[in-house]
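worker-3 :: picked ATPase
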Amino acid sequence: MAQEHDVVTRRPDRVRDAIEQGRTSLGIELGSTRIKAVLIGPEHAPIAGGGHDWENRLVDGHWTYPLDAVWDGLRDCFADLVADVERQYGIRPRTFGAIGVSAMMHGYLAFDGDELLVPFRTWRDTTTEVAARELTDLFGYNIPLRWSVAHHYQAVLDAEPHVARTTYLTTLAGYVHWRLTGRKVLGVGDASGMFPVDPVTGRYDAGMLAKLDEFVAARVPGDTGSRLADLLPEILPAGADAGALTPEGAALLDPSGALRPGVPLCPPEGDAGTGMVATNAVEPRTGNISAGTSIFAMVVLEGALRGHHPELDLVTTPAGDLVAMVHCNNGASELGAWAEVFRELSAAVGGPSDADTVFEALFRAALDGEPDGGGLLAYNQLSGEPIAGLAEGRPMIVRTPDSRLTLANLARTQIYGVFATLSLGMRVLADEGVEIDAMFGHGGLFRTAGVAQRMLAAAIGAPVGVGQAAGEGGAWGMAVLAAYLRSGEGRSLGDYLAAEVFADAAVDVVTPEAEDTAGFATYLERYTAGLAAERAAVEAVKPLTTTEENAG
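worker-3 :: tokens ->
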């Protein structure tokens, strides 16, 4: 990709022609803290981008985003992209070869017709513990708290009035796609985080659907609405026709009227699926780790696991192959908060105050930290963390009087804190005998070359590769899925990525260093024991409020 990006950089006329002729692909991803758009040319290299910052809110015990914020953010992000195109190439894009939408997986959007029945409940909610436990026991298959079916069944158990009125359930990506195209569909990867998908049929598991309907009828008196199968989106694999941009959809994205309807859209996907695409990790024995507000590892399996584990989800790639997912609710948000503190300090003493400079300085300092963090422990839990046994979170730093509090150790342990819970889940996968040939990191955490990558390698005990587009993240992966709709030509997604997208890609691979690996192991042992302090903090220290905005 580096060579391709150089070509389009040297030849802006070629890019301009591609934009005018609609030979581009647009990917939009609604992440936890940022909505991002990436436009790619025929060679799959990014040629323009846009963004919009937003935050979730904790309202009445549920993490949520208002739907008005979804559309305000999408419009602002799209306008930012258009402005970038005009600034670089002197033209305004009026059409695209294809568009793809992705977003945070899981969660709960329940509709009666066009009416949203309750505020959007995101993947971050931990209010579904009873439902998740009962469904896991019923299916003999791990159903995490954040899955859509757990949200739905918890609403049934709680006798929420909206359940009987519900006619459609979907994810955030599915909702946006529906409004843009009129089609109630979902990519198979995102769908597999709503309800278990049978990888043989590529459909929701029929046996589990029947069990749940029977279970609900026996356990809950009265009318609870339609069968679950009637409420879920239609599943589509990568490359399938998922509809086209309607006039109403075009106006939602671009109220100016410049964007023309009729652009084809690929199946909407979750951020896990776009991460797999962005790292070329869709074939068995490959995997990736996406680090952002949450952090999760995806490992494509060669076959079914021996048993089910609460630390592991089973989902699919955008092509429908079985994937083991280690998902942690809490990723880099606490690290980002500390970076902001140091940015404010730098500004106060007259130093650099831009976030990128301060962030890189903090990461570079981490390289000088002691391998075990000098006795410091960093807990990054802003919200509940099921893998760590936490229903709620309290971010904190813990140290003993003889620990060594330095900038380098503080920075290193904050990065370790991002990876600690993930490492606990990855150990379960290793105990299952799952073998991994290649693991790739992506997301903004890897923008500072060689730092988070090196510490992640120590945390999982495996080489970690980072490619040229690692910092572009899932929006670029979604743009690639849109391009696959346009030019896949019957090839499998894996073959398309290998031949058309990553054939000449430069990947930097870091192998775990023995000293770092031993140091992280010591850190993780203390971290695990110290989770008792985190649980005590949850009990003793109550949030200032549960109704005002609480950044995640």
